[in-house]
UniProtKB/TrEMBL annotation:
Pfam families: Acetyltransf_1. Residues 3-151 form the N-acetyltransferase domain. One of its GO terms (molecular function) is acyltransferase activity, transferring groups other than amino-acyl groups. The lineage of its organism: Bacteria, Bacillati, Bacillota, Clostridia, Peptostreptococcales. It comes from Clostridioides difficile (Peptoclostridium difficile). This is Acyl-CoA acyltransferase. The keyword Acyltransferase applies. Keywords: Acyltransferase, Membrane, Transferase, Transmembrane, Transmembrane helix. The chain crosses the membrane at residues 58-77.
Amino acid sequence: MSLTIQKVTSYFKDLEKFEELNNEAFPDEERMSIQEMLNLVQSKKIEVSALYDKQQFIGFYVLVIENHIGYILFLAISPEQRSKGYGGKALSLMKKQYPNCQIVLDMETIEDSAPNLQQRILRKQFYLQNGFYETEYLMEYKGLEMEVLCNQKTFQKNEFETLLKNLKIREIPFHLWKK
């Protein structure tokens, strides 16, 4: 496995594959269109990166960096490439690329009534096994309750809240609170 990162622009060669994965990996209420992502890249609010193993498109991630906080908005691996270590390798690359940043992400909370309960449990196990910690914080995004995880034992809550306040995506407010 030789995972590499390529920045995504409007001239990106695999936009069609990117769009297909974006549509497959994220439900409508969470998904951001590629055009929205590219507009935010131009305004320097986010970075969008494609993941490749040699010449093969493996997946992508979308990251916001501000004041030593990196917030993963999206991370997706192509269905045929899942469970091969690419997701963990992508997280490692992000940590190496931003060694002085706390990397934060959110995921659906684990609720017994969730239709995809097993998927949520496996996702959380994946993040914990890849060096992320529970922060004891939840956040709301477009009416969805999400659990916040980070790659350091001490969560930089104030800095993350500042990032959220400055992050203007579709003017959606983000709310953060302790469990």
